[in-house]
Amino acid sequence: MRGEYSPPGSRDSAAPARASAREGRPRWLALAVALSIAALASAATLNPLTTNDLWVHLSVGRETARDILAGQGVPNEERFSFTAQGRPLVPHEWLSGLILYLCYSAGGPLGVQALRLALVLGALAGLARAARLAGAGSGATAWMLVFLLLAVAPRLVERPHLFTYGLAGWTLATLGLDAQRASQGGSRMAWLLVPVMVLWGNLHGGFVVGFFVIGCFLLAAVAALLPLPPALRSLLSLARPATGAGGTTPPHRRPTRAEGEAPPSSTRARRLALVLCASLASLAILNPAGPRLFLFPFEITSMPVVSSSIYEWRSPLVTSYRTTLPFALTLLWGILLLAGLRAARARPGRPSEGGWGLSGSIIALAFAALALRQMRSLADFVVLTAPWMAVALESLQASLRHRRWRLPEGPLPAAIAAVVAAALIVVFGYPARANVRIRCIPPLVSPKTPVAAAEFIASVPGLPAEARLFNSYPLGGYLAWRLQGRARILIDSRNEAYGDELTRRILLAFREVPVFEQEVARWKPDLLVLDWRARSDSAVLKRLVDGGGWKPVFLDDFVVVYAPDSSPLRPLRFCSPGQFDIQRIGPREAAAALEEGGRLSSWQPGGVMASLLTGRALMVLGRQTEARRTLELAAASRPASPALWSLLAASRQATGDRAAAAQAMRVAEDLARSAPAEE
């Protein structure tokens, strides 16, 4: 009947027609769709290396490579700090660190970027395969991938959890194939999950996700064997796994058990149980930490300091993250997932015995609860429910067509949307927050990385062997990487290496001056290396303005280095993070300020602080054209510095360009109004 809805797998004429249309699509269309998704993945993924974790993993990878080549095995103690030196560690990510190090050794930052993109594309391929096995069409699958990339873009950073995303995608695809063949006793391909889980356990602590997912499918397979009422049995599959080529559902239907079919074989359930047991046993043996590895993910998540002090481990409901685009997209993802799966259940036709519905429901509920508990799990929820989202979108589209809505079919609209989204991200950046945009490369490495500070420290004469650096939490990773053998750090992002009490005490030292003074007296550092842009360090920076035995000897736009007053290093007179007022620079100070601005420029050419000091000194000396040239060069990168734009406005005014001066002042005022609020 015209306008009557017929689900995939029914005997109406529309289903074969749609199947034939899919089979008749040119191959160039599939290639174009794949390239468009890859373009969006590249735009969302290839931004400057910015996580402090990366450099710790590179350091661990370097030590691992050296020890393995020396026949000493995988390192299992802390080697980079002076606060936890020699403490035993569980090497839970040793293999990912080694892979990252090999990629960096082969191609530098570009090698890490290439690995990063390859892992993201691999995850997308696995999730797409899983979605097609679940019965989703190519159009719904393409839309799901576009939606996923936009929702999880800020989480696609250069950290070992990308290995978890890739392996999770292909684990779901393998289990999807097993569910598709449920009536034949499953798929022997499920045995591949045993080496996958061993590999996963040596790459990232997220291996527990793999065991959980396998357990969910095992539970669904067991439930399919039970003599449950029809209403309850419908919960076993909200999506019918496809049995046709290319993920399409064949037009014929097999008789249901209610129509006389014998109960399904228990072969599949037994196989999944054996796979799960074999994976657990193999991983317990084939990892450097042995069975203790299984406890590690729960030990780190149970550390009070992690959940209370580390931003990404906090609930999105108690921070401003709930107002961001990624959170809104994840919330929309959950709503569409629920609505689409409800629509799938309402569709006529026999549900499969593969247990996709039950396993998907458990996975979705578990990771939704986890996402509400910690921000870092929002992307995990999206990734792990991706195949079911594709089915949900397929069902929603079918429901709308049933209501005579004319919707474009096929993957081409999604491909166009992917290209448009990729272009917008490349031009404008990804709006992670109201005032923060994640921009594509270049540069390959984020300017916030303390590269210049580390080079300065490496060049300081007279430092003792393995000098002690009292560093801010985000800076430890790169300092450990660059200064290995030259200096030791206070702390880095490996909370498990320092323990709950030591981590809590160090983080508190940067918030409360008395604790800071106690820790400095306790550890007797040779240099202070501080992230002066961090609000958590502001009290300490204000204290250092008053002296306290320390003087600033290095400064760029993000990092300041203090040396003891007794050090022969020349102090900075005009640039102090806790007390920087360029208006105090008059004619008598201008020459000295200009010389100091040159020092800052040698550390960070075109930096905001260097340009502010140099520009102000040149203006006081009457060299207005040079001052404007210096400030225009710094403003070309669109820095979020109201002070720089205000001074640029003054220099433009002084050179007679009133229109440009007014424009710069508007930018300064907008930046001042949009300054981020403290969490």
Helix content: 55-70%
Number of strands: 7
What about the largest sheet? 5 strands, mixed
Instruction: Give the neighbour order of strands across the main sheet.
Output: 4-3-5-7-6
Low-pLDDT regions: 1-23, 238-263, 348-353
The rough form would be described as globular
Number of domains: 3
First-last Cα distance: 59 Å
Q: What is the strand content?
A: under 5%
Task: Kindly report the average pLDDT value.
Answer: 87
If helices are DSSP runs of H or I spanning 4 or more residues, what is the number of helices? Answer: 27
Please state the CA-atom Rg, rounded to the nearest Å. 29 Å
Structural class label: mainly alpha
What does this protein look like?
It is a single chain. The chain is mostly helical and 679 residues long. It folds into three domains: 31-249 and 264-438, no CATH class; 451-564; 582-673, Alpha Horseshoe (Serine Threonine Protein Phosphatase 5, Tetratricopeptide repeat). Helices cover 57% and strands 5% of the residues. The protein is built from 27 helices and seven strands. The protein has helices at residues 14-23, 27-45, 52-69, 94-133, 138-152, 161-180, 193-203, 207-225, 230-233, 267-285, 296-301, 304-309, 325-346, 356-373, 378-384, 386-402, 412-428, 451-459, 476-482, 495-509, 513-523, 538-545, 587-603, 608-620, 624-635, 642-654, 658-673, and strands at 430-433, 436-438, 467-471, 487-489, 527-531, 550-555, 559-564. Strands 4-3-5-7-6 form a five-stranded mixed β-sheet, covered by helices on one side. Helix 19 links the parallel strand 3 and strand 4 (487-489). The termini are far apart. The model is unreliable at 1-23, 238-263 and 348-353 (pLDDT under 50).
